[in-house]
Amino acid sequence: MSPIIILALALCALAFILLISWPLVAALARLAVSVAIIATLALPAAASTGSDLLTALTPSLLDLAGVALTALIGVATVRFQRWTGIQIEARHREALHSAIMTAARVAVAQGLTREVATEFVAAYARSSVPDALKRLSPSSETMDALVRSKLLEVRGR
Predict the structure, then answer these.
(1) DSSP conformational letter for 121
(2) Cβ–Cβ under 8 Å, residues 126 and 136
């Protein structure tokens, strides 16, 4: 066989191994890293005596503490992002409710009928807090129920 065909077959085999067997390669790489970490911890400890054990393990323990601290920072970052997302949603919800209440008070003060008042309040909310509506994206039924409940609340006062 010519060297070009052998090279082409070798490249095809390599591509097959990398594309098809990639999860296996990743698992073996994780296993190799785990073995290296265990060997790093165990070999100095096995070669030392009682008082030297802490001295031998100190660099490995510091590395392990660094990894744990990095993981802790990552978890804290994710939780902070979730918490601020909740805070942003609460601000949008509060802005939407405030806009609906303002419009409901105006509609009741003007003596609008129920249907006209509902449309007026919904239009006011759409123009007043479009970012909140975009972020919360309430369905039309939810928005209608919210508008009607705020109108009833204002009329009941």
Answers:
(1) H
(2) no
Q: Which amino acid is at 51?
A: S
* Rounded distance between C-alpha atoms, residue 132 and residue 120, angstroms: 18
Q: CB neighbours of 114 closer than 8 A, spacing ≥ 6?
A: 151
- Cβ atoms of residues 144 and 122 within 8 Å: yes
Identify residue 139 by its one-letter amino acid code.
Answer: S
Q: What is the CA radius of gyration of the chain?
A: 33
> Between helices 114-128 and 50-110, what is the axis angle to 10°?
140
pTM: 0.49
pLDDT of residue 116: 93
Closest CA to 34 of 76, 74, 67, 81: 67
89-148, pLDDT tens digit by residue?
888 899 999 999 999 999 999 999 889 999 999 999 999 999 988 988 899 899 999 999
CA distances from 142 to 11, 61, 103, 133, 155 (A): 60, 56, 17, 12, 20
Q: Other C-beta atoms within 10 Å of 29: how many?
A: 10
pLDDT higher than 60, residue 48: no
